[in-house]
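Posted in: Structural Biology > Protein-Ligand Complexes

Title: Requesting predicted complex, heme C in pocket

I'd be grateful if someone could produce the 3D structure tokens for the following input. Sequence and ligand are given below.
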Amino acid sequence: MKTATVLMTALVVGAMVFATGASAQTVHYPGGKSTFDGKCAVCHQAGGKGMDGLAPPLVEYPGKYASSSDGRAQLGHTVMYGMFGPIKVKEKSYNFKMPSFASLSDEEIADVLNYVVFDLNAQHGSAKPFDASEVKAWRAGPLDQTAVHQRREAVVKGLGL
Ligand code: HEC
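-- Reply #1 --
Done. Output follows.
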């Protein structure tokens, strides 16, 4: 009897700990998360924490880009066209190639950006969620990866990052 009570208590406490842990990582954009885990995490790592010398973290700057229209377009262009050229994120340098994901649908790009900005970035100002029509408009003028890089310089400068 006594053993059973102890076991029950352990189970209940265990379940509570598990539930708390799970709610701390609520995902609002599960579709975006599955695209991210399948296509982006190989370089940017799970949760977008980045990897020195390979790919930048995505847990702070994207949330800042998302509050300006140039910054939002920059996020979309980076995913649909890729980016090439040296960049800095919080004083750390990266210089590798972000591949193009032009084959993702407008919905998938909107969803993966929503996951990055709203699930991975603690701060995103007053940014509104991305939708497919916003992404569609960004496809209008194809850019090469160097042009995307040049625009990033302007966006980062404009935001004072
Ligand atoms: C092969 C590795 C690789 C994969 C896969 C990859 N990225 Fe990247 N990503 C990079 C690199 C490298 C950079 C920086 C490029 C540079 O130095 O110009 C970057 C940059 C970015 C940036 C710009 C960050 C900034 O501060 O300007 C965003 C946003 C981004 N990636 C999102 C994604 C998303 C979303 C996916 C999945 C759909 C993805 N990446 C897949 C390597 C990768």
